[in-house]
């Protein structure tokens, strides 16, 4: 690669290790970037919609995962192309912000890039294209807000929320039980939601997985489930009216952080030290016991002797509880996390209706359930399934559904799915394009085409003829002025998405269009790529 | 390169591959079917075993395994194909969840995919296939539950059921000739648990020597340890103290302690102090007045001698599991501190007789007449360690199935009866369903029917004829018919006494269809570049 040459055709050395670097610029760079990004979008496009397919991903260590979740797919593909990586981030930011629609956003970006490529071929300037996309995006967002509807989330036993959860779950492997799982997700979210503040703390919903059984066996536990058992096999398996002492210090002799040495120089010292050590254990257990606690949960380990003393004092205890679990239990039971034994006081204890050990399968694995917590209701969704892959995928799907419900509680405006919202926006953008007098109108028109690409892709995945079904839906939308006409993916005989009750949140749709446009604009601005040669 | 001829930029890392559409599907079908075909010859009472030979250097790598257990075979295989890995995964889950039917689940998933592949070739969309499978699965599950029967847990019928189930499970294993003997043995062991599902209480001890027939169930508890020299070999009315404490030298656990002395005298003093500390500990133990002392950790000579002098029988180095079992069986508490001798009655375990026995060439300690009589020991004898290992696995399978049955109590007829019934239910359903899903439902029925077919084939019988006769027999309303694998005919299962646990069948059906669905839904396989391993 060379930037400049002298009179004899010899290159000037400008960049470090110039010879080993690769450079692409101008149209070549644009095209290469767009093609790479499109390749990623193409992989994802077959995952879109209720009949979308899954991807099987083999990790560098040979572990297999099967998923339909856009952000997970692009993350696990280990993409190395720099522009394609932008799409990975795009999907992940949608996941972080909204939690759902991670496939859709990448597919939309892909369609936009495809349009941009044609526009570039026609000789449009990239910046004009990106300006046009920007303006079109504004129009689409505005239109989305006008066609959005407010729904009453309380009505009919939260029917609307369940439907929205079903829409999110519809495309996943667990779809045959989407109604049950949707209900579980809705109940879980409502249990922990603060409806007055329209806020949901998702930390209070714990998703625990366990292979075995079937997806149907997935259930909601109104309490916290932790994958631990009692520290001593002979401790009671159930504690009623539990008063929980939550410790982050080990039941072991103290280990001061300052470096020190205790030198034993005489037999007396030795005996004294021994007695002191014994005293430590007795004191520790006594302090816990005296506070009135009847169960101790500890983030660290126990010394054998301490463990036995606990048993002797009829104080069931659990060791090695993970940090996140400790926090969750603290929140739910109102316990204060106690870092030192000296600071245990009765008012710092958390309260729960019961703590008990439950067992699964033949392999003797036990888990602890903490139920009827005093403060906030924390819930756990225990996911079961035939194999690790199914359980993992179910976990991701339920997470998506939970996010959708949370978004609806925050903002109860919805748009209809099945590609209807995109189609309505496309029509609106197209109308707007005719009003624009500058060059941008080509880009705006292309934006509309790209939006239409989403219902096209949906129809394609469902085995319908994409062109006819999109054309039909579009003409019906125009004739009836009804923005709810979409693609009948489930072959239910109606294209009105309100009747099919395919709900999507407005916030998710808005975010999808905005994020996709932003990333496309960014890719269109790159006109020079300098990279090491081995790329 | 795309169609137009543009060279696509490389998106994935070097060595990473991506297969799409047909290629991806073909790859997963081939892999899954290959795995299913591999284990299918082990299915049924006439199934064959496999030899597993580990790869790699080293002494332990030369140890081979001979087995008939699907999960064991699949677990030990290293496969590259991702779909094959999914099959192995469900087999493992089946093993953990119910303990048996590990071959069936892999074979059923493989057969489903084989049928699925044919449907895909007929240009039926995978999603339609899945939709059909889901209908079929629900129908099959419903039929399976309908044909199951339940008996009261304490009744004689239930006891008979258990024996029949154990026989059925064991009939496909190495010990099929002695299955009546072992079935009885397993049922007795499980019934001792009195409904609890803790398999830990049933200990299996394997000792080479003798014949398989010499295996027996000991109602006491056997610890594979020796009584320390110089102690009594037989203790009646034993009071047992089970401990988990350091009896070598009790180091001070306070962090940063270091012994630093400036004269030899001081060393001697500290040594004496140390000794005294141990003596002190022993004294404390003695206050409990036990007659037997079992410790998890090792015991040094000095405390051992002190204890032995006081007439206490010492057992050291009991492993963790063994210790928990001793505690559970004798009702002892596992002690680590010894400051409350007044609780002695509460914490000491009790049993009528402890004695050292010889099984084969090995000395063991037997605890009989324990306080809590739940624990028991199955002593397995056999000509070689390979046989013993396989018998152990078979017994484990049978015990798991029995425990599951005790929990669930519902049973179905064996000999392929349940599969044929489910297949029939699916076929009936297929007639009512509109749309192309019906093909998938029929395919599901065919896959289910493959299980008895493979069992026939493995027995060397004419499967086509047998299965057809079987079908006709069912159609006539003979609900208990099934394959008689000794004669190669369609027989009556209630006369032959072939029963199976419903839970095992249910779990196999659900896990297999879930896995097949999972594989069917895939249209794209991305393999990341393998992690580079640095050679040490």
UniProtKB/TrEMBL annotation, chain A:
Pfam family for this entry, one: Cpn60_TCP1
Cellular-component GO terms for this entry: chaperonin-containing T-complex
GO molecular function: ATP binding; ATP hydrolysis activity; ATP-dependent protein folding chaperone; unfolded protein binding
Keywords, sorted A to Z: ATP-binding, Chaperone, Cytoplasm, Nucleotide-binding
Domain of life: Eukaryota
GO biological process terms on file: protein folding
Main subcellular location of this protein, as a coarse class: cytoplasm
Keyword Nucleotide-binding: yes
InterPro entries: Chap_CCT_epsi, Chaperone_TCP-1, Chaperonin_TCP-1_CS, Cpn60/GroEL/TCP-1, GroEL-like_apical_dom_sf, GROEL-like_equatorial_sf, TCP-1-like_intermed_sf, TCP-1_chaperonin
Subcellular location: Cytoplasm
Family the UniProt entry places it in: Belongs to the TCP-1 chaperonin family.
Subunit and partners: Heterooligomeric complex of about 850 to 900 kDa that forms two stacked rings, 12 to 16 nm in diameter.
PANTHER family: CHAPERONIN (PTHR11353)
Record's function text: Molecular chaperone; assists the folding of proteins upon ATP hydrolysis. Known to play a role, in vitro, in the folding of actin and tubulin.
Descriptive protein name: T-complex protein 1 subunit epsilon
UniProtKB/TrEMBL annotation, chain B:
Family, per entry: Belongs to the TCP-1 chaperonin family.
Main function: Molecular chaperone; assists the folding of proteins upon ATP hydrolysis. Known to play a role, in vitro, in the folding of actin and tubulin.
Statement: the UniProt record of this protein carries the keyword 4Fe-4S: no
Phylogenetic placement of the source organism: Eukaryota, Sar, Alveolata, Ciliophora, Intramacronucleata
InterPro entries: Chap_CCT_beta, Chaperone_TCP-1, Chaperonin_TCP-1_CS, Cpn60/GroEL/TCP-1, GroEL-like_apical_dom_sf, GROEL-like_equatorial_sf, TCP-1-like_intermed_sf, TCP-1_chaperonin
Main location: cytoplasm
GO cellular component: chaperonin-containing T-complex
Gene3D superfamilies, per the entry: GroEL, GroEL-like equatorial domain, TCP-1-like chaperonin intermediate domain
An example molecular function term from Gene Ontology annotations: ATP hydrolysis activity
Provenance organism: Paramecium tetraurelia
Compartment list: Cytoplasm
Complex formation: Heterooligomeric complex of about 850 to 900 kDa that forms two stacked rings, 12 to 16 nm in diameter.
Keyword line: ATP-binding, Chaperone, Cytoplasm, Nucleotide-binding
An individual GO BP term: protein folding
PROSITE patterns per record: TCP1_1 (PS00750), TCP1_2 (PS00751), TCP1_3 (PS00995)
Record-given protein name: CCT-beta
């Amino acid at each position: 690669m060379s930037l400049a040459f002298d009179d004899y055709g010899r290159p000037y050395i400008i960049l470090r290790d110039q010879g080993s670097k690769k450079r692409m610029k101008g149209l070549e760079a644009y095209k290469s970037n767009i093609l790479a990004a499109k390749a990623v979008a193409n992989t994802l496009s077959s995952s879109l919609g209720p009949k979308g397919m899954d991807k099987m991903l083999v990790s560098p260590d040979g572990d297999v995962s099967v998923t339909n979740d856009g952000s997970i797919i692009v993350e696990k593909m280990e993409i190395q192309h720099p522009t394609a990586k932008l799409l990975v981030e795009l999907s992940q930011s949608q996941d972080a912000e909204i939690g759902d629609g991670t496939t859709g956003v990448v597919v939309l970006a892909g369609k936009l890039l495809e349009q941009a490529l044609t526009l570039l071929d026609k000789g449009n300037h990239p910046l004009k294209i990106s300006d046009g996309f920007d303006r079109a995006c504004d129009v689409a967002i505005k239109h989305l807000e006008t066609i959005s509807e407010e729904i009453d989330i309380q009505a009919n036993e939260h029917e609307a929320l369940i439907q929205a959860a079903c829409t999110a779950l519809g495309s996943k492997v667990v779809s045959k039980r989407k109604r049950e799982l949707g209900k579980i997700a809705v109940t879980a979210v409502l249990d922990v939601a603060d409806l007055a503040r329209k806020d949901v703390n998702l930390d209070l919903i714990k998703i625990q997985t366990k292979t075995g059984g079937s997806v149907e066996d997935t259930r909601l536990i109104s309490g916290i489930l932790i994958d631990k058992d009692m520290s001593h096999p002979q401790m009671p398996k159930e504690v009623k009216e539990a008063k929980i002492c939550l410790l982050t210090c080990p039941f072991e002799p103290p280990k001061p952080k300052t470096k020190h040495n205790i030198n034993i120089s005489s037999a007396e010292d030795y005996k004294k030290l021994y007695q002191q050590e014994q005293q430590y254990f007795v004191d520790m257990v006594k302090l816990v016991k005296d506070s009135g606690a009847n169960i101790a949960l500890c983030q660290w380990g126990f010394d054998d002797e301490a463990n036995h003393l606990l048993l002797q004092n009829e104080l069931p205890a659990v060791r090695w509880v993970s940090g996140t679990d400790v926090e969750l239990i603290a929140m739910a039971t109102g316990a204060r996390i106690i870092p030192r034994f000296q600071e245990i006081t009765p008012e710092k204890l958390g309260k729960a209706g019961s703590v008990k050990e439950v067992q699964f399968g033949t392999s003797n694995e036990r888990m602890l359930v903490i139920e009827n917590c005093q403060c906030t209701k924390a819930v756990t969704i225990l996911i079961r399934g035939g194999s690790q892959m199914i359980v993992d995928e179910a976990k991701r799907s339920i997470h998506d559904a939970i996010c959708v419900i949370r978004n609806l509680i925050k903002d109860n405006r919805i748009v209809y799915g099945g590609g209807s919202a995109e189609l309505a926006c496309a029509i609106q953008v197209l109308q707007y394009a005719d009003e624009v007098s500058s060059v941008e109108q080509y880009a705006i028109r292309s934006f509309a085409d790209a939006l239409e690409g989403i219902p096209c892709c949906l129809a394609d995945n469902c085995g319908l003829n994409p062109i006819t079904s999109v054309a039909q839906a579009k003409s019906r939308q125009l004739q009836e002025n009804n923005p709810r006409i979409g693609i009948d993916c489930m072959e239910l005989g109606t294209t009105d998405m309100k009747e099919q009750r395919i709900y999507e949140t407005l916030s998710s749709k808005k975010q999808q269009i905005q994020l996709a446009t932003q990333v496309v604009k960014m890719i269109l601005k790159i006109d020079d790529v300098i990279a090491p040669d081995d790329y | 390169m795309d169609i137009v001829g543009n060279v696509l930029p490389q998106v994935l890392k070097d060595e990473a591959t991506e297969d799409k559409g047909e290629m991806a599907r073909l790859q997963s079908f081939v892999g899954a079917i290959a795995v299913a075909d591999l284990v299918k010859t082990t299915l049924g009472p006439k199934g064959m075993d496999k030899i597993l030979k580990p790869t790699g250097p080293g002494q332990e790598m030369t140890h081979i395994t001979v087995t008939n257990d699907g999960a064991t075979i699949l677990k030990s295989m290293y496969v590259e194909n991702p779909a094959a890995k999914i099959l192995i995964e469900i087999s493992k889950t089946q093993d953990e969840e119910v303990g048996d039917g590990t071959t069936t689940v892999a074979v059923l998933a493989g057969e489903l995919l084989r049928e699925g592949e044919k449907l895909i070739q007929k240009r039926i969309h995978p999603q339609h296939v899945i939709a059909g499978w889901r209908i079929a699965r629900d129908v099959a599950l419903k039929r399976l539950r309908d044909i199951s029967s339940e008996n009261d847990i304490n009744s004689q019928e239930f006891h008979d059921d258990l024996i029949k189930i154990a026989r059925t499970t064991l009939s496909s294993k190495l010990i099929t000739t002695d299955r009546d003997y072992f079935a009885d043995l397993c049922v007795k062991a499980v019934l001792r648990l009195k409904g609890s599902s803790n398999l830990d209480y049933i200990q299996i001890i394997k000792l080479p020597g003798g014949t398989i027939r010499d295996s027996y169930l000991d109602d006491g508890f056997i610890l594979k340890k020796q009584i320390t020299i110089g102690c009594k070999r037989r203790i009646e009315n034993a009071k047992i103290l089970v401990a988990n404490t350091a009896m070598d030298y009790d180091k001070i656990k306070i962090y940063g302690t270091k012994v630093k002395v400036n004269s030899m005298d001081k060393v001697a003093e500290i040594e004496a102090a140390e000794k005294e500390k141990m003596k002190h500990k022993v004294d404390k133990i003695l206050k409990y007045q036990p007659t037997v002392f079992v410790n998890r950790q090792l015991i040094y000579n000095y405390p051992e001698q002190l204890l032995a002098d006081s007439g206490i029988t010492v057992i050291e180095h009991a492993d963790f599991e063994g210790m928990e079992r001793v505690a559970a069986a004798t009702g002892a508490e596992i002690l680590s501190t010894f400051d409350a001798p007044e609780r002695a009655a509460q914490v000491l375990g009790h049993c009528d007789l402890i004695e050292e026995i010889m099984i084969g060439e090995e000395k063991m300690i037997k605890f009989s007449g324990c306080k809590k009589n739940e624990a028991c020991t199955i002593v397995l004898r056999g000509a070689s360690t390979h046989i013993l290992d396989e018998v152990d696995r078979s017994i484990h399978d049978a015990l798991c199935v029995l425990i599951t049955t005790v929990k669930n109590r519902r049973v179905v007829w064996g000999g392929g009866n349940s599969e044929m019934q489910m297949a029939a239910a699916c076929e009936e359903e297929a007639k009512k369903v509109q749309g192309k899903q019906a093909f998938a439902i029929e395919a599901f029925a065919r896959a289910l029917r493959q299980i008895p077919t493979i069992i026939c084939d493995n027995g060397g019988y004419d499967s086509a004829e047998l299965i057809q006769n079987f079908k006709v027999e069912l159609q006539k309303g003979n609900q208990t018919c099934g394959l008689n694998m000794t004669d190669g005919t369609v027989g009556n299962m209630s006369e032959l006494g072939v029963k199976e646990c419903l839970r095992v069948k249910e779990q196999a059906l659900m896990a297999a269809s879930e896995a097949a669905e999972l594989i069917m839904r895939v249209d794209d396989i991305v393999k990341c570049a393998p992690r580079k391993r640095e050679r040490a």
